[in-house]
Amino acid sequence: MQTWSLVSICVLLGVVVRWGVSLNSYSGAGKPPMFGDYEAQRHWQEVTYNLPVQEWYFNTTENDLNYWGLDYPPLTAYHSLICAYVAKMINPEWVELHRSRGYESPAHKLFMRATVLVADLLIYIPAVVLYCLYLTDGSSKKKVSTLFCFLLYPGLILIDYGHFQYNGVSLGFALWGVLALGLGWDALGSMAFCLALNYKQMELYHALPFFCYLLGKCIKLGPMGRGFFLLVRIASTVLVTFALCWLPFLSDPSEALQVVRRIFPVARGLFEDKVANTWCSLNILIKIRSILSSDSQIYLSTACTLLAVLPSSVKLLTKPTFWQFKLALANSALAFFLFSYQVHEKSILLAALPVCLLLNDLPLVAIWFLLTSTFSMLPLLLKDGLLVPYVVTSLAFLFFSLYLLSALEHCSEEELRLGAYHKMLFFLPKLDLACITRWKFYIGVAAMAGLSAVSVALVPPPHLPDLFPVLVSTTAFLQFLGTFLYFNIVQFSGPPSRKTQKKNN
Amino acid sequence: MAAPGLDGCSWFAALSLGVSLLKCLFMDAYHSTDFEVHRNWLAVTHSLPVSRWYHENTSEWTLDYPPLFAWFEFGLSHVAQHFDRNMLVVENLNYASPATVLFQRLSVVFTDLVFIFAVRECCRCVQEQKGPRDVLSRPSFVLAVLLLWNFGLLIVDLTGFMFGKGDGFPVCVEQSRHLQGALLFAILLNLKHIYLYVAPAYGIYLLRSYCFTQDHKDGSVNWRSFSPLRLLALGAIVVSVCALSFGPFIAMGQLPQVLSRLFPFKRGLCHAYWAPNIWALYNMLDKVLAVLGVRLKLLEEAELPRASMTGGLVQEFQHSVLPSVSPSVTLVCTLLSILPAVASIWRRPRGARGFLRCLLLCALASFMFGWHVHEKAVLIAILPLSILAVESREDAGIFLVLTTTGHYSLFPLIFTPAELPIKVVLMLLFVIFSFAALRKLYSGQGSLLRPLESVYLAGLVAVAIACEIVFPLSPWQQRLPFLPLLATSVYCSVGVSYSFLRLYASLLRQDEKPKQL
Hints:
The structure holds two protein chains of two kinds. By secondary structure, chain A is an all-alpha fold. Chain A is 69% helix and 0% strand. Chain A is built from 23 helices and no strands. In chain A, helix 9 (204-220) runs antiparallel to helix 10. Residues 498-505 of chain A have low confidence and may be disordered. Chain B is mainly alpha-helical. Chain B contains 20 helices and no strands. In chain B, helix 9 packs parallel to helix 13 (327-347) and helix 14 packs antiparallel against helix 15 (378-389). The radius of gyration of chain B is 24 Å and the shape is globular. Chain B starts with 9 loop residues before the first helix and ends in a 5-residue tail after the last helix. Classes of the chains: A mainly alpha, B mainly alpha. The interface between A and B is large, with 39 and 33 residues. Chain A: Belongs to the ALG6/ALG8 glucosyltransferase family.
């Protein structure tokens, strides 16, 4: 069948799964007084529509920052404003100042879900389609299979359409950036990434690879010549984009400062809740939060993050190819997730996006990581009442990605690029690493399935009320750490050789 | 490069798993009145003695399927009591605890397995062309998708549980397992009497090809090869199944009561949402003539009965200008319309494909002329047509017209705004797939659709946009709320009638030049 009909079928299936998930509950449904992220988004529509721009980020009588104050950069605010205009046309009660707090109704839920779908259709999904069609190699069937699995990634669907967020917008812009860079349009790519950054500050996880790639490219082109002009072009694009986004706040420096203060709150702790990163897992053995002062906590996490992200960035700087870029994105996001300050579970999506880009090249590990990322958010999903969508989408993703990408067939040592492991583990007897990897995969999936079932079915013992979330985050952490090491090793092993590429095609 | 992973029979498992997971995802989506119907029947069969089953009317949804279905519900109720005992109390009208819903949906998933098995059998029967072919262009793959991911079945599953997955059973007859086919059909008929529509096809075909063991050289009937033994075997099977299901009720003398429940003729010519059949056109004509008559001062407005046909409720009504239609008239029309098909299969049975065509025509004819037909009934015709469509180019063209219009006529069954994206997207999915796949299957043989048909289908899109988007936002929404239903039904009945005529034409044309299949 023609590619376009296959592509439209994949997109339509993606949309139907998304809408199916959106019929379920959202975060904070029916839970006054604070509700959840859904109410936060609705509140931002209310605030941006009714108040002048200068007051959006300030604590005034009209705008109580303690009740879901705006803590994302201006582009989110503008997006909320557009949604608010539409909401006002349909039903003004939804965005009435003060009176609409905690507003919940089926019609309103439909509207909010629709805004997420529209944003996805305009930004995220086209980027995914174009990426899969133009920047992956293989037959057109392989491209369509990759597209389908990419669109079926459960984590993003469950968070955006279940819990309720607009990650599709920021990740979509970042993906446009990656797409543009892959096609060689550097200025456009940097503009897209700046838009992503101005939508959610968490995109800083991806900032270092973008910076190193572009800088490395400029240096390669010759620091005194075309490289310099490229650098100037990129720098000016970035500055202009930032200026345009922050325009209303540039008139008064104190306003801009307040925005920055809102989006980077430094008064919080090393971690909140149970998240699958190093500090939280370490906390089980050593109570870090009580041993170190909050300043030293910040220094420690910064130091560790920099250390973790340094090798990958330096490698990218010296060798700015697209393959290195994709791996560096994954490594950087994972490094930040594992070692950074005040990380939320949802930040794993920032690592999941680059790994989705690697679905075509390293299918088994990518699928494994993507499943684990969804699993790591299980406590959050259970709190939101999203068990059925979680199970259905995870099963669908596991089965279809293994089937369509033949992940279990294409896992010889060469394809998994395990050669470097042999060199590192030279002191151990000759092992069949591919077989080991496959078994690790099976055990990992079994463990995740088992823990999911147990979290739902059993009640934790009274003296260990957080047993299951802790188990979930620790298991996920171990798998993330392993994946982080793997991707770093792959990045340093060199590009896929022409021979293996020809075999895959 | 061979398609990765798409080899062997694994694609069938992938398709089935996909559609089952999709249905699981929509588990909480929609409860229609069918949900309450099912629960009520579980309660009635579990809590009351057999003699009260067909007299019970606490709920408005009385037992109106044949006794074998009642026995089936009885069996299910024993499983249901482990989920939630309270659903089996007859007085608990509209009881919908989460456990109840879970049980209902699980029972649907289970019955789906039966359907999936039947589809697999169908796909095995499809003739494959020699030579390595990419999986996506294989007829069996296309057929599997057309049957498993049939938009109509998905929508019907969303809205209710009652639809027959038993349409796969014709396949057994195809494989010349006549007795098995007879048995399965008898069971099916006793489960849902809607299959009475196609009983003549089965009956005549089995009689003809099974009881007459040999044909003359040119295919006509060889009276001397009649085998009374085989007739007895067939008869025994059918009678025993019917006895099993109706027996207790005949013994208790409740047969008239049961029949009156099964065939409630008080329900009116057309269903609440008009099925796109001849009577929709007839009603429309009647309305138009009435309005014209009033305008041209030929009729007195006061003489006309109040406009209740477009009322959307299930009532009896009279036509104003054209003669009123009674149940017997529809029966006669239906019988007349299936006569040529049945006669042709008697004179020259053309094996399994001929039988399938006759079955399809009987189903469609009953749909066109029947009394109180539900739109869902068009699926009984669409599913067999899918099998024919992957093998013959002409049938593929007719299939595209019939399915698109038939499926679109199901749109009004789902009317909440939350489900609007689902039905639109699923419809688009099915349309894109059927057009692209069938076109690829018959590539190089010219276009599948005639220009007029393409224009008609494009017009369907316009009607869809008008009804779903434009109309609710327009000022006529209050005054004429059933206008979109009317427009949908009338527009679709044109398409369905056209497909019916073309199918008949193809059957009679084949009759003139007998082909050995």
